[in-house]
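Consortium newsletter contribution from the modelling node. Members have asked for a concrete example of what our holo predictions look like. Here is one, prepared for the phosphoric acid mono(formamide)ester complex that several groups have been discussing at recent meetings.
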Amino acid sequence: MNTRLFQKDFITTPDWTVEDLNTMLDLAFRLKGDFATGVIHDHILRAKTLYMLFFEESTRTRNSFETGMTQLGGHAIWLTPKATQIGHGENAKDTGIVLSSYGHAIAIRDCRTGIGNKYLYEMAHYADAPIINMQDDVDHPCQAMADLMTLMELFGRDLRGRKFVLSWTYAPKYVRPLSVPQSLLWLMPRFGMDVTLAYPEGYHMMPDVMEKARQFADEAGTTITETHNMEEAFTDADFLYPKSWGPIMVTEDEPTVEAMAARNTGWRVTQQKMALAKKHAVYMHCMPIDRGHEADGDVIDGPQSVIYKQAENRLHIQKALMALVMGGRA
Ligand code: CP
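And here is the predicted structure:
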């Protein structure tokens, strides 16, 4: 167990070793067990402050971080560009130096393509407190860690040899970033899973992210396979993670995005497609789900769905993360 994580930034999972990530998981399982049995931990971050800066909306992330801070005895402050001088152009350096002179960590959601991840690293360079990624344009590490925790709860800590399918799905509403699929491509191969990535033409990942994911897979002795056939991907899968993302490597022009999506409405999860996977296969999604487009209701609400468990585990994994990077030495 690596307990030397005090004040370490958590911007992408590649910045943390497998041992570091296992430390976070170990603690998350402990805190979850304690939460279930009424054990209070309000001494861990007593009198400490987390700033939560959101460039975009959130249901799960904001509320799980804020609730987690309450349960650990600290306080979380919700910030947006409009509610701060960021909206008037104050930069990452000035914001980071000032906020970190008051509080104990800065968590940021910034999914602006080509901007978000750089903004987090820039603030981390100047801030005297750890930076936590609440989702950017490249990675959503807290989501991926909650997903990994969910699989370990259901199937045990040893996930070697399992087929993890990450599939694009149709959704008409808005262009979702690549960060969730990319976070899974970076994380799951390091924990023994063989990942199959399925998507229609034009929905590929960032090339440097794919290169790093393949490097992780090689090091771990696992595989990453790409296909343009959803049914082929689902066949014999252990874990199914079908979700929508935008054709961001090609375009973010709304009419073009809508036209591309409209050509792929068949990329929807149905009971028939679920039947191609193994009997014990689980249906996963980070939420929010575009019901009726990404997946049928009988899949989302069916016995194989673990989506609410994933959402619940955001609280426990983030409490573990905050305890490690903000609590530190007594
Ligand atoms: N999965 C997730 O990050 O949800 P929110 O956008 O609601 O935070």
